[in-house]
Design brief:
The structure is a single chain. It is built from no helices and eleven strands. By secondary structure, it is mostly beta strands. Strands 2, 4, 5, 6, 9, 10 and 11 form a seven-stranded mixed beta sheet that branches.
Length: 124
């Protein structure tokens, strides 16, 4: 059974930084992808970044490029999302999710296991 546990959310002022972590368990190989998504209050869920775990290729949506950085820890089953220059519009719940194929996607429906979410609040 695949399980994901996120951590690292919190409250920061605009311009600050946070690092989110996602620990994944339950896979016996690297044939999967890990995506980060967020849902702002009153808005639909949106994709932020994704890593294909079999080749470590990382992808970002345009709004995340230059401010967010996804990395894979040496422990290999942990993925970090470093968020810099945070803005009030980055406020929301952040989720990591896994897709049982090493293919990144911005469509949440391709991901079948989700973490519980971690809240990020950015104040102006």
């Amino acid at each position: 059974q695949v399980q994901l546990v996120e951590s690292g959310g919190g409250s920061v002022q605009a311009g600050g930084s946070l690092r989110l972590s996602c620990v994944v368990s339950g896979f016996t190989s690297d044939d999967y992808a890990v995506g980060w998504f967020r849902q702002a209050p009153g808005k639909e869920r949106e994709a932020i970044s994704c890593i294909s775990m079999n080749d470590d290729r990382i992808y970002y949506v345009d709004s995340a490029k230059g401010r967010f950085a996804l990395s894979r820890a040496k422990t290999k089953n942990t993925v970090h999302l470093q968020m810099n220059s945070l803005r009030p519009e980055d406020t929301g719940y952040y989720y990591c999710a896994t897709r049982p194929a090493a293919l990144c996607s911005w469509y949440g429906g391709h991901f079948d296991s989700w973490g519980q979410g971690t809240q990020v609040i950015v104040s102006s």
